[in-house]
Amino acid sequence: MNLFIVEDSPYIQNRLIRFVEELPDVRVVGVAGDISSAYNAILDADADAMILDVQLSDGNGLHLLKNIKQNKPGIKVVVLTNHSTDANRLQALRAGADDFLDKSTDFEQIPQILHDWQQPAQIQNLN
Predict the structure, then answer these.
(1) How far apart are CA 117 and CA 115, in angstroms?
(2) Which of 60, 65, 82, 119 could form a disulfide with 95 if both were Cys (CB 3.0 to 4.6 A apart)?
(3) Does residue 21 lie within any of the structural domains?
(4) Which interval of the chain is the signal sequence (predicted)?
């Protein structure tokens, strides 16, 4: 699985990369800290999955999510945010997010989510 991280905090970026390095068959293919540099980089990297923050330095990550899903509908996306309001959750799911996590309470779920996303592909490869 090719994973792209869109997160403006270098601390969180590094923490996510460390998590992913421990997972078999998951590879970080890019990291961006803002929307303007993320869009084309995600498409160029042929990402299968994305971890996306909502509040980025140049706007709302959910706008990026909508645009990416229009051009790459099969990409899996987990929204990871400190702004885990019901309104943001609903907007993220409507925009095409597959999961919505709170950075302060749900961070540890990321490895399992990525693992679960790989299962259908691994089962399909066995057939």
Answers:
(1) 5
(2) 65
(3) yes
(4) none
Q: Which residue in the block uniquely carries the two structure tokens 């799911």?
A: 93
- pLDDT, tens digit, 9 for 90 and up, residues 53-110: 999 999 899 999 999 999 999 999 999 999 888 999 999 999 999 999 999 999 889 9
Q: Report the distance separating Cα 68 and Cα 66, nearest Å.
A: 6
Q: Give the chain's domain count.
A: 1
Nearest to 84 by CA among 93, 75, 96: 93
Please tell me the distance from the alpha carbon of residue 122 to that of residue 61, in angstroms, as a whole number.
Answer: 30
Q: What is the pLDDT of residues 40-61, one digit of tens each?
A: 999 999 899 999 999 999 989 9
Q: How far is CA 60 from CA 18, 48, 90, 121, in A?
A: 25, 21, 14, 31
